Queue: 4 jobs
Job 1
Amino acid sequence: MGKFKLLERLYIPTYNKPSHVQCGEVVFDYEKCTGDKLCSVICPADSIVMVDKKPQMKPSPMTECMACGACIAVCPTKAIHMKSTFRVLKGYLKTIDLGDILPPRTI
């Protein structure tokens, strides 16, 4: 960082600034949901909580959803869908078209 000018240092993106990171987001179809808690148990980011036997995403500053799709893969009733994907340093780096968001392969 010693070679950057002061103005350049202000524009270096970091992970600890919420405006530089967009977490993933999933939506739940409560008509299909059975409340089995598999999605909240398997979530590696601990972004899904159960409230009255219904899954919900944690509020925005607390969620760290990586859009890994693990919750989608384990849901037996297909009640979870990816709404938005995880993007790091949005607006600062050139992004490559990632294509459609698909759940991971299951065996």
Job 2
Amino acid sequence: MKYQLGKALATISFLVAMIIVTTGSVQAQSQVRVNVPFDFTVANKTLPAGRYVVSRVQQYGTDSVLAISGANGHTHLICLTYAVRSLDTKGKVTLVFHRYGDQSFLSQVWSGDSSTGRAFAQSRSEREINRKAREAARNVVKNEAPMETISLAGEPLK
């Protein structure tokens, strides 16, 4: 009986330690700094070019709600995201933008070591631009793509 109790306590202690280690490592990667050289829109709000930090809203919460802050620490926007998966990892922290002409929209955020990223829902203005770009593309050469994808490397904040 004492042996089984000791074994159960050891197992529970190991699991608690693993949760603490995992939470700590996830938290260390939950903030991303990136220099965006162009104006961009996310959730119908246009932000100017500059240095930004993308982080979780709640320190130990899920990645579902992200904050986008300027280099001065001022939070510009809080957004709901959803999980997206890739067959391979990006290898580095990456922000993915969709560009239509001269307008750019933040689409996804990827940590470097995971095949799971976070995606932002398309805003109404991006959906409208996308629709118009597809219609225009039908009337021109088939090889022209109405949307360009831009990936910017960021750096994790510790």
Job 3
Amino acid sequence: MIIGITGTDGSGKDTVGNLLLEKLSWPHYSLSDEIRSIARERGLGIAKDELGKLANELREAHGPGYLAERIMERATGDFVVTSIRNPLECEPFRSANKFMLIAVDAPIHIRYARTLDRARTGEASWTLDDFRQQEETVEMAGGEFGQQLRKMLEIADIKIINDGTIAELEDKVDKIVTEVRNA
């Protein structure tokens, strides 16, 4: 089985992925890490806007499932993959194995605070309005080769609202683990 995780910026996608890894002992891959790796190979910056632009260029040049296909080349067995941002990135996973898509979201003010806390390149100087504008203009409905988080949230098999404590999030993940083990 492959469990895919999508969601809004700062929602806790990697935390959910890490909890699943801990509970299921499955490998964890990230499309965002894949983009960062390609950017480093090319000597490019890793600021959020630069990575988004590179991801869109890669999808356009090699097809919307390119990043997923790169992961599928080295992944075997059951695994968790985070940061799926385009519906067509799901296809290589769906065609290879049983696939479950989990969407993670939280209120925007919580997500904004989380992004400030993690202080990734290019995010630390954003205001809440900058964060909101970036999300609406770039991430939610980016076209065929861009990020389409609104669509990803709609097509997810399971939705998690991560607006509480880590313990509350872990309880939600435990329910998913039970479902996976009973599948």
Job 4
Amino acid sequence: MLFALTGARDRLLQDPKNPAALRAYQRCNQWKPAWRYSPDDGDEDACNNFMEAVEEFSRYVVNNI
């Protein structure tokens, strides 16, 4: 919600030069609070991919807000 309120979300969605940040944003939006309470250990590759998306999106936020 805060990301949208800054106007940066709209800029990201309209920026054809930054597809990696857009994919990272979309991946980060798949996160669910219930994951914290899941008894499954999860898959290491999926976890690493998610964390890479978080880092990519974080870089976008730092540079564009």
